[in-house]
């Protein structure tokens, strides 16, 4: 199957965005986001939630930088794309207070007509470990969401279902 020019554009934009994020070039990253971007971060931590618009996403990025003490890096293993979706598989690494977290991730990106990120979903292989790392050493589970009877699986399923295209 041939790669369309739009799919190739989506791959190139994803590579550019991940490289810019790794270099802390947030101006470039923000220019690759649609103004009404919706960013979904799963889990039960200070980094979890739904972030709407560039301002909220920028605040999330700043928290990631603070929590990882500037060490966060995403290493791309592969990118799959068509005209409507871009899927990035890779490994992220970050160190916080001497503890390094390595996670395999799959990011699902829904680009707009210009290739900018309209919607973003991140899935990691070790969500519970990532949540604990996000909380900091010895913090345990987040108290902000512990009273939600549907967590962690109910909310995860709803968000995962919403990220997948309807047939």
Work out the helix count: 5
Spans of at least 5 consecutive residues whose pLDDT stays below 50 are 140-160
Which value, in Å, is the CA radius of gyration?
16 Å
Helix percent reads 25-40%
Largest sheet: number of strands, sense, barrel closure: 6 strands, mixed
Account of the 3D structure:
With 167 residues, this protein is of the alpha+beta class. The chain is globular and about 45 Å long. The protein contains 5 helices and 6 strands; from the N terminus they run ααββαββββαα. The two termini are 21 Å apart. The relative contact order is 0.17.
Question: What labels would you give this structure?
Answer:
single chain; 167 residues; alpha+beta; six-stranded mixed sheet; 5 helices; globular
Please write out the topology:
Elements: H1 5-22, H2 26-31, E1 33-41, E2 49-52, H3 53-67, E3 73-81, E4 86-96, E5 99-111, E6 117-124, H4 127-135, H5 153-163
Parallel strand pairs: 1-6
Antiparallel strand pairs: 1-2, 3-4, 4-5, 5-6
Give a brief rundown of this model.
The chain has 167 residues and is of the alpha+beta class. It has helices at 5-22, 26-31, 53-67, 127-135, 153-163, and strands at residues 33-41, 49-52, 73-81, 86-96, 99-111, 117-124.
């Amino acid at each position: 199957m041939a790669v369309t020019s739009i799919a190739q554009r989506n791959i190139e934009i994803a590579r550019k965005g991940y490289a810019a994020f790794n270099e802390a070039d947030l101006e470039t990253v923000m220019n690759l986001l649609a103004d009404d971007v919706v960013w979904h971060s799963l889990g039960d931590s200070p980094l979890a939630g739904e972030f709407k618009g560039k301002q909220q996403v920028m605040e999330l990025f700043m928290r990631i930088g603070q929590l990882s003490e500037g060490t966060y890096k995403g290493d791309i293993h592969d990118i799959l794309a068509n005209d409507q979706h871009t899927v990035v598989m890779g490994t992220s690494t970050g160190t916080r207070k001497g503890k390094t977290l390595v996670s395999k991730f799959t990011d699902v990106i829904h680009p707009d007509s210009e290739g900018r990120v309209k919607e973003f979903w991140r899935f990691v292989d070790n969500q519970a470990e990532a949540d604990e790392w996000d909380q900091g050493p010895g913090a345990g589970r987040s108290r902000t969401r512990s009273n939600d009877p549907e967590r962690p699986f109910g909310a995860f399923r709803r968000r995962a279902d919403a990220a997948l295209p309807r047939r």
